[in-house]
Write a structure and sequence with these properties.
The structure holds two protein chains of two kinds. Chain A is mostly beta strands. Chain A has no helices and twelve strands. Classes of the chains: A mainly beta, B mainly beta. At the A-B interface, strand 5, strand 6, strand 10 and strand 11 of A face strand 4, strand 5, strand 9 and strand 10 of B.
């Protein structure tokens, strides 16, 4: 069985601070995919990144960066110089690839205060 | 229209009603999904369709009945629901098959309230 744990239920920081959202996963599969999604108050889940189990390169996209470490089964997400628009619930998810359903963590509610 | 659309956006129904949720994707994808998001539980997968064939039913009660007439449309037929079925129902699509580009794109959801 697959499992995703996001231990941080809620994080509140002041604008311009850096913030890291933790994600730990469990799977018995050797091939798997990890994802991050953002859910703003409007409710729609917005895809941020996909990573497969064979690619441990960290990725940076603007103020966003992701740190994938198979040794600790973690896929953490860092926002640098946070902005109020980053306020949302962020979900980490996992699947086996192809048309496999996603297993989601419980989400981390990120609040960026002006 | 672009992306994934869902109608209606809000639905209030009684326990004896029959209603349907509709999802349409304009991304040329071949896989479609239903998820349920309630206050008490994390996002839960309900059903998966890959090239119009149902490939996963995540132990969903029979009062929820999915239908996928083609790769662009997905329905969720509802009947005799319970108040605990009140939730946000999200539809998603992805390329499908064995594609490694398997990120799922979500619609805005239908907020369902069962009285």
């Amino acid at each position: 069985a697959q499992k995703v744990t996001q231990a941080q239920t809620e994080i509140s920081v002041v604008e311009k601070e850096d913030v890291t959202l933790d994600c730990v996963y469990e799977t018995r599969d050797t091939t798997y995919y990890l994802f991050w999604y953002k859910q703003p108050p409007s409710g729609e889940l917005v895809f941020l990144i996909r990573r497969n189990s064979f690619d441990e390169q960290n990725e940076i996209s603007g103020r966003y960066s992701w740190n994938f470490q198979k040794s600790t089964s973690s896929f953490n997400f860092t926002i640098t110089a946070s902005q109020v628009v980053d306020s949302a619930v962020y979900f980490c998810a996992l699947n086996r690839g192809g048309a496999d359903g996603l297993t989601f963590g419980k989400g981390t509610h990120l609040i960026i205060q002006p | 229209e672009t992306g994934v659309t869902q109608t209606p956006r809000h639905l209030v129904m009684g326990m004896t009603n029959k209603k349907s949720l509709k999802c349409e994707q304009h991304l040329g994808h071949n896989a479609m999904y239903w998820y349920k998001q309630s206050a008490k539980k994390p996002l839960e997968l309900m059903f998966v369709y890959n090239f119009k064939e149902q490939t996963e039913n995540n132990s969903v009660p029979s009062r929820f009945s999915p239908e996928c007439p083609n790769s662009s449309h997905l329905f969720l037929h509802l009947h005799t629901l319970q108040p605990e079925d009140s939730a946000l129902y999200l539809c998603a699509s992805s390329r499908g098959g064995l594609s490694s580009y398997n990120e799922q794109f979500f619609g805005p959801g239908t907020r369902l309230t069962v009285l």
